[in-house]
Amino acid sequence: MTDDWVSLFSGGKDSSWALYRALEEGLDVSRLLTIHPAGDSYMYHTPATELAELAAESVGIDLVEVSPDDFGADDVDDAGAQGDAELEPMEAALRETAAEEGFDLAGVTAGAVESEFQTNRIQGMCDRLDIGLFAPLWQEDPVALAEAMFDAGFEIRIVQVAAYGLDESWLGRRYDADALADLVDLREEYGVHPLGEGGEFETYVVDGPHMDRRIDIEYDAVWEGDRGHVEIRDARLE
């Protein structure tokens, strides 16, 4: 038996950084767990999660996926209750994974930065499962985190925006030092978080030191007046 870790993985920069740091720390990450919410979510990154299979293949770690059919939060109108309901399919998937023969679940990795709403629920789940939580981004300086991602060689694309100051030109833009500088300026003017922690923007990692092959994506930009997202037309590993 080994100490197996599961990486809570959307493919966005934060969960990818948590995975990368876990691997750097020598944790035996044996599974990636991707949640596919049907719509807006209090707990999960939602855009471009359909790329998870390609990302997992590039990383070289087996993927467990939870589909929208596994959610039971449709009739919940309280944010806290919805967050609790959204956590249930993740916990069920972890219990099922932990029950696999030869699998010894030691903990999960998470990319939470500042959200106590998410982190408290994930920590509570870990306590119930009697496993550890590795959250290397938690309460770290957001600008320093972004710069560490760039320095490590992460190629990050912005796949969704929803904030004053972020227009259609940001869709598909590379999240790099130039973008970060613009976001720091927008923080002064509009309060935009440099990591998008308030939902201002979402990202996807298409290449990095933990990946064997880059994800090449073709997309259409969908703009809806004051927000937008990229719609993936095609994706492949280079």
Automatic annotation (TrEMBL):
Drop me one GO molecular function for this one.
diphthine-ammonia ligase activity
GO BP annotation list: protein histidyl modification to diphthamide
| Source organism superkingdom | Archaea
Q: Which CDD domains match?
A: AANH_PF0828-like
- Which InterPro entries does this one have? Diphthami_syn_dom, DPH6/MJ0570, MJ0570_ATP-bd, Rossmann-like_a/b/a_fold
Where in this chain does the record put each Diphthamide synthase domain?
A: 6-236
Q: Which Pfam families match?
A: Diphthami_syn_2
> What is this protein's record name?
ATP binding protein
The species this protein was found in: Halorubrum lipolyticum DSM 21995
Give the lineage.
Answer: Archaea, Methanobacteriati, Methanobacteriota, Stenosarchaea group, Halobacteria
